[in-house]
Amino acid sequence: METKRVDIPAALLDDLCSRFILHIPSEERDNAIRVCFQIELAHWFYLDFCMQNTPGAPHCGIRDFAKADILLLCQDVQKVLEQWKEYKMGVPTYGAIILDESLENALLVQGYLAKSGWGFPKGKVNEEEAPHDCAVREVLEETGFDIKNRISKDMYIEQKISDQLVRLYIIPGVPKDTKFYPKTRKEIRNIEWFPIEKLPCHRNDMTPKSKLGLAPNRFFMAIPFIRYLYFYL
């Protein structure tokens, strides 16, 4: 997919660079992968705040954003972004399967984009961060719920998805009337309880279509864990 230059106002780019790019340590500045992570943060900030306060600021994805003149990594932005994507896929992801008191319902989150599916709250581990600490942090960011005093380090389901390790800690006994809200902007659109029996166990399982009116592919990130969840229940 070809990237294109987007016409982001120069004043915005100057501000974004001063916030996210210029302070990168000199020894890391030549590491394109490291710079990509900072550009990702700048992109999130641009979408969350700059667009709202700057009429006419164009909406753009990370690929087009990285092509902006001041943020330009190198001539072959496409290649660098692909390398960065591969690197990110190798970073383990941790989160939680939150169950209600009856153990019949699981909490799922939906990404902010219109076509995003439903999955369990999770995210990539930071450098030198313990897996369970990552799970606590990510669940708190995506749902506003603190599982720190509920998590058991030995109670989890772990899968490898597209060569990426994903571990979800099982958190039972959460009241259904708990108020959930994402702490991060424009990352999570919805947070809902779903009856586990209505969720798909494989990609051709049409249970959610008949029970929820949703195609099984809307739960593609949750499917690898549903079947194994029944062993716990």
TrEMBL record:
It catalyses: a 5'-end (N(7)-methyl 5'-triphosphoguanosine)-ribonucleoside in mRNA + H2O = N(7)-methyl-GDP + a 5'-end phospho-ribonucleoside in mRNA + 2 H(+). Its cofactor is Mn(2+); Mg(2+). Its EC number is 3.6.1.62. Residues 89-220 form the Nudix hydrolase domain. PANTHER family: M7GPPPN-MRNA HYDROLASE. The keyword Endoplasmic reticulum does not apply. Belongs to the Nudix hydrolase family. DCP2 subfamily. It comes from the Eukaryota. Keywords: Cytoplasm, Hydrolase, Manganese, Metal-binding, Nucleus, Phosphoprotein, RNA-binding. GO terms for molecular function: 5'-(N(7)-methylguanosine 5'-triphospho)-[mRNA] hydrolase activity; manganese ion binding; RNA binding. Decapping metalloenzyme that catalyzes the cleavage of the cap structure on mRNAs. Removes the 7-methyl guanine cap structure from mRNA molecules, yielding a 5'-phosphorylated mRNA fragment and 7m-GDP. Necessary for the degradation of mRNAs, both in normal mRNA turnover and in nonsense-mediated mRNA decay. Plays a role in replication-dependent histone mRNA degradation. Has higher activity towards mRNAs that lack a poly(A) tail. Has no activity towards a cap structure lacking an RNA moiety. SMART domains: DCP2. This is m7GpppN-mRNA hydrolase. One of its GO terms (cellular component) is nucleus.
